[in-house]
Each structure stands twice: as structure tokens, then as C-alpha cells.
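Dear support,

I submitted the protein below through the web form. The confirmation email said the job was done, but the results page showed an empty box. After a refresh the structure appeared. I'm attaching both so you can tell me whether what I see now is the final result or a partial one.
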Amino acid sequence: MSFKDQILEGIPSVLPPAKPYDDAINHAPKRKDILSDEEKKLALQNALRYFDPSQHAELLPEFKNELKTYGRIYMYRLRPDYKMYARPLDEYPAKSKQAAAIMLMIQNNLDYAVAQHPHELITYGGNGAVFSNWAQYRLTMKYLAEMNDEQTLTMYSGHPMGLFPSHKEAPRVVVTNGMMIPNYSKPDDWEKFNALGVTQYGQMTAGSYMYIGPQGIVHGTTITVLNGFRKINKSPKGNLFVTSGLGGMSGAQPKAGTIAGCITVCAEVNPKITQVRLDQGWIDEKISDLDELVNRVKKAKADQETVSIAYLGNIVDVWEKFDQENIHIDLGSDQTSLHNPWAGGYYPVDISFEDANDMMANNPELFKEKVQETLRRHAKAINKHTEKGTYFFDYGNAFLLEASRAGADVMADNPTLGREFKFPSYVQDIMGPMCFDYGFGPFRWVCTSGKPEDLAKTDQIACKVLEELKTNSPEEIQQQMADNIQWIKGAQANKLVVGSQARILYADAEGRTKIAKAFNDAIAQGEIGYVVLGRDHHDVSGTDSPYRETSNIYDGSRFTADMAIQNVIGDSFRGATWVSIHNGGGVGWGEVINGGFGMVLDGSKDAERRLKSMLFWDVNNGISRRSWARNDEAIFAIKRAMEAEPNLKVTLPNIVDTDLLNSL
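What the results page shows now:
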């Protein structure tokens, strides 16, 4: 069967043969055995409802074995035979070009070069899933192929509920992931309900089909590293950044360090993913011996090199060894997936990777104990370095939160609301006040033609727009504009593309709107093919997360989720092609609500109208919330937005005199 025929077939009427387990692929760890015997029967019933009853007898023992062996029913047999990658738009069987673009984005998220655990349909973060099983993938792709522009596909945590009548201005797809009743968002709730096959962890951009590989976070990480060095009044040149995690989005860290111009040491325990990052050129060198690492870093410092080094081993060993050897760390962080601490997001020290995976599945209580012991050691080693002058920041994957729960020494001596920890979140000190409050965030686009020359043209268009905007930009955002122009000029040389022909660029509402309009004009003139717009959910408006995206909100509202919900509802009726809202993300199940969108530009006047309406709202929704929290930068930004748009009228905060308040 051709690729198009297989898409249109959906779930096959004749079962394909069972597929052997491919040991060469980086697989998800076995999930713990959490279901009762009755719940296991329910999980099997839930899985079999995708198939004709005549197939149940053959599939039942197979699915039972998957559940026993892996802790989930992935339906490996249903994995397609064709290569998984983002094909040019016209290669998809579709009645709607918008639907074809969504198919392209789904396949990009499952591309072996992009996805962390492709056979388990997990894109990044250890559990960030596009779908829970391969039947869901097949059925979704079939629905998208059949969809017309007056239908909307409703996605319930990976399950395609069906095509419903709507209208051409409505989103073509509405995605929800993990939207639990609030009292059922503990980590074990995810384990249980995911094993039952009734919900999934969409991460941030995995379950909304907007992940573009590690590039998606390289730019933000580059800005973070650059501004981290600015904060301590040092040049990156010849100075040291130490962190950990190379799996999904964390894999961007060494590339970002190189672009920023520093020495980067990034630890990773998984040998397969470490090799992948080396092969992709995202790290320069791989070292597995601590003494060799020490000598290499000393040489890099002496020679003032720009180099990225992966240490194949546990990050705790690095912090402790560098303390013993008196190697000064200028910037320190951690981006292991501590939103997922008990299922592969963080590994205990002094235990091999293989033994840890075995313990995780077969002795989860001991594994949890070892992880918490490691977190206490990790924090103790960091504290020794910060006493010597290291600037450490939490990179938002719940390191400080989980370390505090483990009893580690990470709490502030004099905690205040929003400053409970002795170390800041990177959003509190860097990204929040310097970017998000001004409206700058991770705008993305994908060239659906698959042509590198189209991506190069969009880079040129974006650069031209930014240079024009910079000439009239206020002093407050000149540095942000300059950083982004430098980034886009170096994007081609830095070979950031993994998977689709995609790009990311931090821009504010004005920048996003003008860049998007310029793209749409170029499409209308036949210069480039269709473009998909999107963004990371980790943005100005998309995410409510008290320990990351909204950690610099100090009015007490950082634990509310109104902004993210308003964001996705507002995007849906202002022209988004698809919208998504998730429980969970980079900081954990039950710890964050985040929303996102995708928008297809086709060169039409309708697309121009939609992009202007939706992109303006998508950013200024978040600025207005940050302004109401009394963030000075956001007050400046929302006033500027109201001057530019007469129909925007936002309630501004009145500031209480501190002396008056303290006189009570």
C-alpha cells in the first residue's frame, strides 16, 4: 500500500503481523505496576474497543503482555511501516490544506530524529506523548484526511473523539490533554489513568503537535545563558556553565552554550541519547571519566574556548568533583525532567542506568528513596559552589520543588511570597522581567514545503522586519531586538534544524504580527509555500505555572490558571487553525496548565485577518495579567499596546505607597 492508502485505511481491517521489539531505538522506561487486577481488565477492554470483535481473541494476549512488560498498552503491532517524518504538504491525502498541515506537524513530532521515545509515541520529557497508542495515531490521521473545512476534530487526551460540524472560521482541531478533576492530578493518578488508556501527559508542545526538536528551546536557552552572564557582569568567553539533561528539550543546552560563547558541561545518564546529540552535532565532545573531564575543562578555561562537553554520567558526580578540584562554575542549572521524578525524569547517583531502570519498575518505593537521597546530595554540592560565587538558577523542570520535597537545603532563610527558595527560577530573574513582561516569547514557524530554501527566505524576511522595527523601538527593548537579530542572522550557520524546516524567534506581538504578515504576503506572491505558525507554550500568555512561567507574579495569583484558559479560548475564536490546553508540562502533572495554538498561513486575506487578530490577543492577554500583578515592565508594555490599538482597554493597577503600607 502507498503512504496515502495507509493513511486512508486508518485502523486496518486485517491485522498486520506483530512487530519485533527494536532494541536499537531509545525506548520509554517500563512504567510501574499500579493497576489492580480488575483495572487491568478495564485497560484491556479500553484498548480493544478500537478493534472489531473478530480481532479481540488475537489481540487480547498481546495487549495483556504489553501491559505486564511495559506498564502500558502501546499497540506496537499497529506502528506504521512507512518512515515517520514531516513530508511536504502536498504528499498528504487531505480535503483540507489546514488538516494536511496538522498531519505534517504530527509526523514531525514522531520523527525518529525529533522524538525521544518514538515507538511509544513520546516526543520529549520522558512522558510527553502525542498519542497513547498507535490505534489513536492511525484513526486521527484518517479523520484528518477525511476532514473538510466545515468540520472540527475533537481530541480527548490522544483519543480522536470524532469529526463534528462547525464552520470554516472554527479551529480544525481542538486538543485537550490530561484535563483532570483537580483532586486527581497527583503523580500516581497520571500513572493509573494513563495505564487505563483514558488520559495522557501532553507535555507542552508534544501533545499539541508543535514541537520542533531541541531548536524549540535553543533560542530561549541562549538568551537565558547570555543574560545569566550579563547578570553576573561576565563575558561568556572562557567561562563555565554546568547543567544536566540531554533528552528532549534539555538537549538544547550545550548548543545554546556554544552559541552564547561559553564552556558548557552537560551531564546525561542515558548513553543512547548522549550519542544521538553527539551525532546531531548538538554537543562537541563526549567524556565518561571524571578526571578526564576535569583536565578538559581546565584546558578549555586556559585557552578561553567555546566548547560543549557531554559528561556521560550523573550530574551529582560532576558538582562534587568540581568542588574537590576547585573548578569555578560561573553559571549552574539543571534541566533534568524532575516534573517526572519517579518514572525516568531524574536518576539516582551511584547506580547504573540499567539497574536504576530495573529498580524504577520493580521497586518504585526504593527508587523514590534513592532519587530523594540524590537530590539532597545534589543540592549540598550546589550550595558549596554558590558559596564560592556560582550563580545557580532553577531551569524550571521542578528541580527546586522536588528537592524541597526531598528535604534538601534549598529553602530561603527569610522566605517571602514567591521567593521561597534560596535560588531563583530563571523566569524570576532572567526571562520574566527581561522578556515575558515585555511580550517577548518563543514564536515559531514551519515551512510546509519541506524546502530548506523556503526556510532561508523566511529567515531573511524575519530579519528584515526586525531590523526595521528596531530603528523605532524604545530603549527598554533595544537589547531584546538586538539579541533576536543576531540570532536569526546566525540561524542557518548554527544548523538548528532537526526534522521539519522550522525556526524559532523570540518576538513581541508587533514583531510576530509583522513577520507573519510578511510571510503571508510572500506566500500570496508564490515566493514560498504555506507556513505553519505556532509557539512554545512556555511563553508570555500560554502557561500558568507558579514555579516557572508565572514565578515572577507576586500578587498571590501565580497559583491560578485563568490566563492559560482565557488564552486558548481567545485563540480559538480569533482564527487559530488548532488549539490545545494541557494539564502538566515541564514542571509536572498537577503543577501547571498550559495552552497553545497552530495557525496555517496560505497567502489569503482571511489568513491576514486571522493572524492580526489572534497574535495580538495571544501576547497581550499575558502582558495584561502581568501588568495587573504590578510588574513594571508589563505596565510599560501594555500601555504601549493600548497606544497602538484603540480597541484595547486594559485595567491598570494603582500602586500603594510602601511607607503607608508599612505604617499599619
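Response: this is the final, complete result; the empty box was a page-load delay. Residues 605-628 form the longest helix (24 residues).
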